[in-house]
User: Which sequence fits this backbone?
């Protein structure tokens, strides 16, 4: 156990410089890029004095270094400033929207793994066969399909033509109630409130967006699982297991897959980034009130503090999840523990 | 006369790859008698390991058995259906491999790997029973039973090798196939391992096929020896007879190549030439390009095995 | 020797199929990808000849009419011919994706070579920055850049290029580190060859093969990113003909069932991306064959 703790500490320390770099990049991008945010915000025709006043207000006329320092300090205090457009702190806006993204990405990831891993293992087991090539082709094609296009097509087929699933939002209009906003994770909230009808409504709204995002990402996992499985299947212990008369299916889906799962897990850390990117596109397509849609909305409105805040949160999430995945990896693989 | 536990007849194993077909094993016939230790020697690439794997049909694609029979107690393994084959593997014929670290699944505890083997072949054995049997086995091997809860990487190389034998023998098989079992062990551990193998052989009434490129351990352990070259059988016979009077020119060259510390050898003996290309092997006798006694006949016709008092040699010199 | 053109063609075909037999399926995957790419590139190059209408013309036919013999892919809400817009759209997406890939590769490779070769603190800092960018969601970074820059072809290419620089960097740096240790590099240094020569003559040629594969995958990804950005309304002005933007526009008419506005642009984006991906997969197998396995 001591080894595990040491590993966790070491790994956490590594996250800090990375976060630092990312936060700095965000700062640079938002501030140093051409275009004056204040005059854009004020409509582009405001008199000089008003612009200067606004800049003073927002602290934008201080030297860059000072702004940078204030920016970092604020982040450490978990203060991301206030929206330039609305009378709301960035933090509280994010807190509103984050659960929606979490629900979406969580279930999308589940679907992705449920499709990707078994198919990848199957393809590896039947390598060089028609099934193998078929699955690999699916893997390539599905990843090349833009997630928003798949979303639109599914909306069209299942939402418009067949009218089975809703095509926008997290809940139907008449279902909306303030009892939902305890955690913001509607599935939990409806279960806790004991409202089965609402739960059903929430679930049905989840289907299309999660399936869209999950399927597109499954392409990557199919290839990943297949590649790792091929390596594992070459190992001696697989041969030894077969030599003991263990049934082939068990050898592949228990002995081999578990060993292949370990490197897949590490890859999952990287995939979180792609998941986030996909979430942004899915949310805009399904009018899903999450962080992705928030980002785009505020970009159109030129609300720089919020834009910056969203990107910062994305950076933090990616860093944290990558850390968690690495720790889980160390936990599962006993070789790293002892 | 002991009965034959395993009869291999005209076994041919091919590996079709993109540059051609590798003829890894070509028309090999040999018998393993009940209770004996049969040593299978040859240099790397001669086909001995491939032969070993084919016995339990463990060939990795693209390898396939292209012809011949492998009869175990009369039943042809090559033509068996999957159910029969699975019943034999691990229970009647067991196999141990070269590197015990990579032969044991690193994510499972050692005990679990025992239990799985037992429960796969015997329905209705409870976990408790299986653990007891595994613990028994470990005791016989001189390992403390609480080691069952450890992972393979926590053990030393020698112990892992013993665990591997333990798992192989826990169901009391008749025949043990050992593919290069000492190659990854250091000399002292190797000696201990061979002693253990001898003990177990008596205790379990085992027949052993010992595959190795190390002639030394084969000489120690084997009752009968088979020499392979270029995918074909070169010579086979009783161990003492073969070592005392090697007949096939390849066997002679092989034994002469072993450095002898007692002799004053200014230059070590070596055989000219190189091992044959198994995709495009030489015509006739596969050894003829390197044979010091080569005759015209050798270039044209493949020699059959000539038997002389249970000492068989595939060489025209003895025809 | 027969030098007639038919004989030459015959030889070409024979060589072609022999490659196929030697490399198996992967060769045909590469060929399939190449065919798709060539098809789209030709479409882009000969757009003015192939397209039946001007893609900007807002009077080519009835509004929002489904595909028929006059308009193979129907018309949009501004009465423009969708088929012509698809053909001209190929120019935009190919132009941006390839430009971005070229920018990325030049910057990423050179930075990787220099950083890997120089080593030390400089290398550590650079690697940290690159790793951080690499681990961040690329699209979001591209969105940030595209949002801050003026819409335009060069700017969107920059936005797309930035996110791939770390990929090249990591690859090339890794290889540079390995090759740097090789004996022949040490020998070259011993006889006084300057760093630039070593980089150019020894390290760079070794790196080219793998980077070629990465380049094709890069283009595939750049295509997806470009389309995503324009779908979100960023990066390009509405005056440019672009598949992503057409998708965004067509989205509005989804509830009323005008499927042709969405289906064709999306299918083309997918097709082009698949083409480059297959090219990359086939190329990767051929340059690094894994003989008996797979």
Assistant:
């Amino acid at each position: 156990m001591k080894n595990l703790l040491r590993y966790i500490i070491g790994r956490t320390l590594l996250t800090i410089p990375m976060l630092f770099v990312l936060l700095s990049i965000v700062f640079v991008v938002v501030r140093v890029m051409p275009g004056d945010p204040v005059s854009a915000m004020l409509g582009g025709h405001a008199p000089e004095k008003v612009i200067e006043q606004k800049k003073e207000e927002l602290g934008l006329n201080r030297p860059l270094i000072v702004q940078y320092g204030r920016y970092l300090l604020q982040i450490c205090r978990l203060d991301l400033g206030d929206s330039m457009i609305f009378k709301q702190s960035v933090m509280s806006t994010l807190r509103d929207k984050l659960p929606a993204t979490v629900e979406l990405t969580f279930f999308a990831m589940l679907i992705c793994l449920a499709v990707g891993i078994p198919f990848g293992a199957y393809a590896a087991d039947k390598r060089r066969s028609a099934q193998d090539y078929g699955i690999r082709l699916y893997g390539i094609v599905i990843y090349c399909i833009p997630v928003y296009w798949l979303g639109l097509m599914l909306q069209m087929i299942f939402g418009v033509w067949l009218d089975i699933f809703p095509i926008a939002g997290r809940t139907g209009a008449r279902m909306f109630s303030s009892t939902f906003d305890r955690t913001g994770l509607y599935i939990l909230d409806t279960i806790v409130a004991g409202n089965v009808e609402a739960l059903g409504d929430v679930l049905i709204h989840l289907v299309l967006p999660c399936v869209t995002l999950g399927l597109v990402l499954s392409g990557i996992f199919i290839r990943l699982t297949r590649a790792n499985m091929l390596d594992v299947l070459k190992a001696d212990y697989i041969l030894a297991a077969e030599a003991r008369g263990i049934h082939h299916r068990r050898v592949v889906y228990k002995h081999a897959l578990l060993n292949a799962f370990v490197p897949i897990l590490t890859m999952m850390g990287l995939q979180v980034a792609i998941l986030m990117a996909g979430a942004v596109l899915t949310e805009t397509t399904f009018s899903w009130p999450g962080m992705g849609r928030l980002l785009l909305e505020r970009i159109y409105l030129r609300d720089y503090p919020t834009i910056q805040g969203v990107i910062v949160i994305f950076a933090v999430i990616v860093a944290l999840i990558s850390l968690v995945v690495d720790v889980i990896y160390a936990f599962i693989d006993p070789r790293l523990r002892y | 006369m002991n009965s034959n536990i395993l009869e291999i007849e005209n076994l041919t194993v091919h590996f079709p790859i993109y540059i051609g077909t590798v003829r890894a094993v070509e028309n090999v016939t040999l018998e393993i008698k009940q209770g004996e230790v049969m040593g299978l020697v040859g240099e790397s690439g001669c086909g001995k390991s491939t032969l070993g794997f084919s016995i339990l049909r463990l060939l990795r694609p693209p390898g396939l058995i292209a012809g011949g029979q492998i009869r175990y107690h009369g039943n042809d393994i090559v033509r068996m259906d999957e159910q029969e084959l699975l019943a034999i593997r691990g229970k009647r014929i067991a196999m141990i491999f070269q590197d015990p670290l990579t032969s044991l699944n690193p994510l499972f505890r050692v005990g679990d790997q025992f239990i799985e083997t037992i429960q796969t072949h015997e329905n209705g054995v409870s976990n408790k029973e299986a653990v007891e049997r595994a613990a028994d086995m470990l005791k016989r091997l001189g390992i403390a039973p609480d080691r069952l809860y450890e992972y393979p990487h926590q053990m030393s190389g020698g112990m892992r090798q013993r665990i591997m034998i333990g798992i192989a023998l826990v169901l009391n098989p008749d025949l043990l196939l050992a593919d290069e079992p000492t190659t990854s062990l250091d000399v002292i551990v190797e000696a201990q391992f061979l002693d253990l193998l001898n003990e177990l052989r008596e205790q379990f009434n085992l027949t052993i096929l010992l595959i190795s490129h190390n002639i030394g351990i084969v000489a120690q352990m084997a009752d009968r020896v088979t020499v392979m070259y270029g995918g074909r059988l070169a010579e086979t016979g009783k161990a003492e007879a073969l070592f005392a009077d090697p007949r096939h020119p390849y066997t002679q060259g092989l034994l002469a190549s072993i450095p002898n510390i007692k002799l004053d050898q200014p230059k070590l003996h070596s055989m000219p030439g190189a091992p044959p290309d198994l995709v495009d092997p030489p015509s006739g006798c596969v050894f003829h390009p390197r044979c010091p006694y080569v005759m015209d006949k050798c270039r044209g016709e493949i020699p059959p095995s000539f038997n002389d008092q249970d000492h068989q040699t595939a060489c025209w010199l003895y025809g | 020797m027969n030098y007639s053109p038919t004989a030459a063609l015959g030889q070409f075909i024979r060589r072609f199929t022999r490659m196929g037999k030697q490399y198996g399926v992967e060769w045909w995957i590469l060929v399939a990808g190449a065919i798709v790419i060539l098809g789209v590139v030709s479409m882009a190059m000969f757009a003015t000849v192939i397209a039946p209408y001007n893609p900007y013309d807002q009077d080519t036919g009835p509004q929002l009419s489904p595909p028929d013999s006059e308009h193979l892919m129907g018309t949009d809400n501004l009465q423009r011919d969708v088929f012509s817009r698809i053909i001209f759209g190929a120019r935009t997406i190919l132009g941006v994706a390839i430009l971005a890939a070229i920018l990325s590769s030049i910057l990423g490779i050179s930075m990787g070579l220099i950083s890997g070769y120089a080593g030390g603190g400089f290398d550590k800092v650079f690697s940290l920055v690159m790793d951080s960018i690499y681990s961040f969601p690329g699209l979001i970074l591209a969105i940030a850049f595209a949002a801050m820059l003026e819409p335009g072809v060069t700017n969107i290419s920059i936005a797309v290029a930035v996110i791939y620089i770390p990929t090249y960097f990591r690859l090339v740096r890794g290889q540079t580190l390995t090759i740097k240790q090789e004996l022949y590099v040490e020998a070259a240094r011993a006889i006084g060859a300057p760093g630039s020569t070593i980089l150019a003559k020894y390290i760079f040629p070794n790196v080219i093969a793998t980077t070629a594969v990465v380049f094709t995958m890069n283009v595939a990804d750049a295509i997806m990113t470009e389309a995503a950005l324009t779908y979100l309304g960023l990066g390009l002005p509405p005056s440019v003909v672009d598949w992503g933007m057409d998708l965004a526009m067509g989205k509005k008419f989804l509830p009323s069932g005008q499927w042709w506005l969405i289906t064709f642009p999306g299918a083309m984006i997918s097709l082009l991306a698949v083409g480059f991906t297959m090219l990359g997969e086939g190329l990767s197998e051929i340059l690094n064959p894994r003989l008996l396995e797979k």
